[in-house]
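Postdoc handover notes: sequence design on the structure in folder B. Input tokens:
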């Protein structure tokens, strides 16, 4: 399973980013191989609008099944939900902490966006 984490860095020890669409990096953790892939999300950070939906579409094409972020707005949430991607929010300090929280069952999937959009610009 591929799990995507919003981040401002390039490793599991990097901070978990609070903004979904405008996160500078997306770290994708593959639970089968325990490998990571880092995606540059410059398109999201530089977008005048639609950053969340662009990022969500990118993750859907990548085959992510879950997303862990600080917050997710309504438009991005709808795209993720339509793609069958579960969205989890976390207040973890790092991506590694968020991964552990998810794997230990301490995070609950969102049923709706948790912020109004556009948020965190």
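Designed sequence:
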């Amino acid at each position: 399973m591929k799990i995507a984490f919003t981040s401002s860095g390039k490793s599991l020890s990097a901070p978990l980013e609070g903004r979904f669409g405008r996160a500078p990096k997306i770290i994708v953790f593959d639970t089968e191989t325990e490998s990571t892939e880092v995606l540059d999300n410059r398109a999201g950070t530089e977008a005048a609008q639609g950053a969340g939906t662009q990022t969500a579409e990118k993750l859907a094409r990548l085959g992510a099944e879950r997303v862990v972020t600080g917050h997710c707005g309504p438009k991005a949430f709808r795209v993720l939900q339509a793609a069958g991607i579960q969205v989890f929010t976390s207040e973890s300090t790092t991506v590694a902490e968020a991964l552990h929280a998810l794997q230990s069952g301490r995070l609950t999937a969102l049923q709706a966006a948790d912020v109004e959009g556009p948020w965190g610009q």
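Context for whoever picks this up: The helical segments are 42-46, 51-62, 74-82, 95-103. Don't rerun without checking with the PI first.
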